[in-house]
Amino acid sequence: MKTLLIAIFLIIAPVFAVHAQQDSRIQMSTLDHLASKASQTVDVNIDERLMRLASRVFDDKDEDEREVKKLVANLKGVYVKSFEFEAEGQYTAADIEPIRTQLRGPGWTRLVNVTSKKKGMLEVYLLFNGDVVGGLAVLHTDDKELTVVNIVGPVDVDKLAKLEGQLGIPDLGIGSPKNKKNDDEK
Amino acid sequence: MNDDYLWDKSGEPDPQIQQLEQILGTLRYQPKPLALPQRRNYFPLLAIAASLLLALLAGGIWLRVRSRNEAPPQQARVETPTPKPTEAPKPPELRSALNPPLSAPKRIHKPRSASSVLPAREREEALMAKQQLMLALRLTTEKLHLVHTRTQPNQIKNQHRVG
């Protein structure tokens, strides 16, 4: 009987461990209904398989791409939902509550919270598995914008922040008002 | 002398025969339960095997259900509704993540030596995934940069006060 219990524990323990590691995935499907109200929507869903696939087409000779490849090497997924609205009040606090509830869960720590009456609220959350960062979430709520970013897996936030301006993709005009202003001036 | 005692124990017993009976009687058959060699208990092993099988089965079902339940869109969608007549029309290329403008660095679409191993369809999927990944990372870094710029003035103010 003792052997049986030990065997069951040994079988179940890794399953729970794997499940615990996957807790950094935030369910964002509750925000989907906002797409119809938004003037612009960004919806990115990259799971582990796509992540592995994408990392195969990074150019190792290119320094920037090499850095990005290194950064995403151990990630399990990247999920983004971003909505921009033409008018204010297109979403309510209740729409974001399911996200906040998940971020209040065990393991998640709010690293930064910047609140401004004019520029809205910007929060950065990290999920810790012991001492290791197991996930990142960024929540940006503005009068006319709602963005949720969720990176699943061990992410190096410092390296990620340093990538600013190195990513070789076109500027979509999403993000900080400052950037938008600069784009308009151009 | 009657020999019936030897046949059916009737008649007068012979003391010699009785003595022999006593001596040999110790060797007579005595019923006792059959002692078979004890069988090995396979229950724990069977239980472990069954648990493993169940765990594998459950894992398989869970993975299948999970992959089914996962949102099917595996590509970035940047949607912009049709511009209103009063608005100045914006070129759609600027807003499309999947069709970056010509000003975008060409290295994204450049064929890679590693990717050349991939079949055409997979390579296309990989390139698409890479673009989405870059878009997501860009958005993330923009937000982190925004956090940095918004927290920086406070730090400077505080430093000023300390100084």
In short:
The complex is a heterodimer of chains A (186) and B (163). Chain A is of the alpha+beta class.
Mean pLDDT of chain B: 72
Radius of gyration of chain A: 19 Å
Percentage of residues in strands of chain B? under 5%
Q: Could you describe the largest sheet of chain A, including whether it forms a barrel? A: 6 strands, antiparallel
Number of domains of chain A: 1
- Please give the oligomerization state of what you see: heterodimer
What letter string, H or E per element, gives the SSE order of chain A?
HEHHEHEEEEHH
- The helix count of chain B comes to 4
Q: State the low-pLDDT regions of chain B, or none.
A: 87-112, 159-163
- Secondary-structure element series of chain B: HHHEH
3D architecture notes:
The complex is a heterodimer of chains A (186) and B (163). A six-stranded antiparallel sheet of chain A has the order 1-2-6-5-4-3. Chain A is 34% helix and 28% strand. Chain A contains six helices and six strands; from the N terminus they run αβααβαββββαα. In chain A, strand 3 and strand 4 form a beta hairpin. Residues 168-186 of chain A have low confidence and may be disordered. Chain A has one domain. Chain B has 163 residues and is an all-alpha fold. Helix content of chain B is 53%, strand content 2%. Chain B is built from four helices and one strand. Chain B starts with a helix and ends with a helix. At the A-B interface, helix 1, strand 1, helix 2, helix 3 and strand 2 of A face helix 3, strand 1 and helix 4 of B.
Secondary-structure topology with pairs:
The complex is a heterodimer of chains A (186) and B (163).
Chain A lengths: L1 H20 L18 E7 L1 H8 L7 H10 L4 E8 L8 H11 L4 E9 L3 E10 L2 E10 L3 E8 L4 H6 L14 H9 L1
Antiparallel strand pairs in A: 1-2, 2-6, 3-4, 4-5, 5-6
Chain B lengths: L3 H5 L6 H11 L17 H27 L7 E3 L40 H43 L1
